[in-house]
Design brief:
Two copies of one chain form a homodimer.
Chain A: E1 5-10, H1 16-29, H2 40-48, E2 57-62, H3 73-87, E3 92-98, H4 102-110, E4 114-115, H5 116-120, E5 122-128, H6 129-136
Antiparallel strand pairs in A: 1-2
Chain lengths: 138, 154
């Protein structure tokens, strides 16, 4: 039986609609849907304008009949991100994971990541835009 | 009695020696001295080459006689950072701007703090930050360069 094929490529402007859909699906899974503020227009402008604020890789799946989707996709994505990051001169790859998301934590650990919060006691802090504006006096 | 004056400005290439010194002092405070891998040469190349990887602000102190140093410096630095735009590395025009504004698109300011560093945690919370690890259960994960090379098959 034929295997599902996965292609990981740089995102294009036309992907922004689907990227937003994936962002919303992830937020729903994380029970943080109310935190999604981004729009498709912002994704396009921020990612494909003159001075891009982010880079994005997309995994395209062409599942073969009868084969379950999603086999090893997470690992393939992380590997590609590591490759791109190294090419750009990065020496670390950092991310955050919810403490109840055991599947994700296990995946990242299996791929060689270390839980810094558990190992060293690091806490992730965030200033929201409103707080930033107050600080900047605007 | 005259107040100590604090000037917060963009870092220049000549600051890299002192920046490295500050990095080492912070690592010593965090009991993580063995994790400092950066060199002055790397700071210069990464920060002041054609495609800068980071932006840096420096706080210069000119203490007045009799005044203790360090009054409110942390807050002043965070306020200035809130003004500055984010990004993988600022484009060329960034260096010509006097003020890099929030309206260029930064909607969050993120950082990590050690759980025993109460002074820092209190400062950031007082300035309006939220502890996401405590509030939502986020854990900070890191792949080191060696792990990245293994993944990339290099």
């Amino acid at each position: 039986m034929a295997m599902a094929s996965v292609r990981i490529r740089q995102a294009e402007e036309g992907d922004c609609g689907n990227i937003l859909k994936l962002i919303r699906e992830l937020a729903e899974y994380e029970k943080l849907s109310d935190q999604v503020k981004i729009s498709e227009e912002a994704l396009r402008a921020d990612g494909f304008g003159e001075n891009p604020f982010y880079c994005c890789l997309v995994a395209e799946l062409l599942p073969a009949p009868g084969e379950p989707q999603g086999q090893g996709i997470g690992s393939k994505i992380i590997k590609k991100v590591a490759e791109v990051a190294l090419e750009r001169g990065c020496s670390q790859l950092r991310l955050t994971v919810l403490d109840w998301n055991k599947g994700a934590m296990d995946l990242y650990k299996a791929l060689g990541a270390r839980d810094l919060t558990e190992a060293e006691g690091w806490h992730s802090f965030r200033f929201e835009e409103e707080a930033m504006r107050e600080l900047a006096g605007k």
